[in-house]
Amino acid sequence: MARRARRDRDARPGPSGFLVVDKPPGWTSHDVVDAARRWLGTRRVGHLGTLDPAATGVLPLAVRDATKLVPFLEAGRKGYAGTIRLGAETDTLDAEGEVLRRHEGALPDEAQVRAALPGFFGDIEQVPPMYSAVKRDGVPLHRLARAGKQVERKPKSVCIDRLELLKYTPPDLEILVECSAGTYVRVLAEDLGRELGCGAHLAGLRRTRSGPFLEEHAVSEPVLRRASDDGEIDAMVSPAVNALEYPVVRLTPEEVGQVRHGSQVLAPETPLTPGTRVAALDPSGVLLAVLEVRPGRRMHPLRVLSVAPPG
Length: 311
Prior knowledge:
- Strand 5 (88-90) and strand 6 (99-102) form a beta hairpin.
- The protein folds into three domains: 2-75 and 213-241, Pseudouridine synthase; 78-210, Pseudouridine synthase (2-Layer Sandwich), CATH 3.30.2350.10; 246-304, Archaeosine Trna-guanine Transglycosylase, Chain: A, domain 4 (Roll).
- Strands 1, 2, 3, 4, 7, 10, 11, 12, 13, 14 and 15 form an eleven-stranded mixed sheet that branches. Strands 16-18-19-20-17 form a five-stranded mixed sheet.
- Helix content is 22%, strand content 34%.
- By secondary structure, it is an alpha+beta fold.
């Protein structure tokens, strides 16, 4: 009971939606979540996809009721700008780790690098790194790695839509990557280095896109902190419906009550294919639920948000 009372005291009313943070270097994704909880005055904050501490860039945060929408957005495509350093492999696959092997010979030329890149386009398999948040028997792999343990990891399928070489200044490659959620750019760096026969690791990474959230949407930590101090941060939370790239329907007051109780409602006359997901708004235009179209023009609630009832 005391814990519940403390939680209630710590929370303040505010908007539900998404806040896109430009994650600073050295912060974990959870550090950003903790800071956002202070800025926004609520414990109900979650992120849409971990970024390594050394990485920067787009880290979308779901705020209050929008945390219920994370499963509908976390699988969005990702974009990165990165630097791969040829000639050395590290235990963490990035510049934070200890060097395991160094290449003593000449590094490949630009033509060799460009010739190797197409082999990583499309559907490929990656083995998750030991220094990652993937869990084995409930324990994150990075904890096992720091304890000096290595465990077998199953490869996972990912998709790389774009892998573009922007600049090659040996030993560094500057690249752009567009890929599926769950892709490890660190593993891509290691695999490319091995393909080239010289080894490599990820020397720098910036996420430029996470699903519908783009780099131009991201706000720096100092700006967000000042906005919180000035009482202006709520205006920076984007409405949840803006993030859902679904058709939008507006419900009647009667349909709002039905959806709140988990009942299906009739889809509009506009043809919607069964399986289509729909963003359902209440009469005031606030996102109420995510619905899925079923045969017979029925829309079934997949997720209902805890917004205040009408009236």
